[in-house]
Amino acid sequence: MNQIESPCVRDCCLNENDICMGCLRSLEEIKAWGQASDVRKTEIVEAIKFRKGVELKEV
């Protein structure tokens, strides 16, 4: 069984929207990660991918 690795990069700093500038998870996603199901973790990873795309477009 494959475990979904935490996206944490140990560079935590929340922006004004409570999104970590290191891993791009929301504060709520960070707090929930340890107890989250694999389905929820996959949803969080997908949200990170979306945020990365939005972040690149804004630059």
List the helices and strands and how they pair.
Elements lengths: L26 H6 L5 H21 L1
Task: Give keywords.
59 residues, globular, 2 helices, mainly alpha
Short description:
The protein has helices spanning 27-32, 38-58. By secondary structure, the chain is mainly alpha-helical.
Largest sheet: none
Strand tally: 0
Task: List the helices and strands in order.
Answer: HH
Mean pLDDT: 92
DSSP strand content: under 5%
Number of H- or I-type helical stretches: 2
Distance between the termini: 38 Å
Net shape: globular
* Broad structural category: mainly alpha
- Share of helix, binned: 40-55%
Radius of gyration: 12 Å
- Are there runs of 5+ residues with pLDDT below 50, and where? none
What features would you describe in this structure?
With 59 residues, this protein is an all-alpha fold. Helices cover 46% and strands 0% of the residues. The chain is built from 2 helices and no strands. The chain has helices spanning 27-32, 38-58. The longest helix is centred in the C-terminal third of the chain and has 21 residues, at 38-58. The protein is globular, with a radius of gyration of 12 Å.
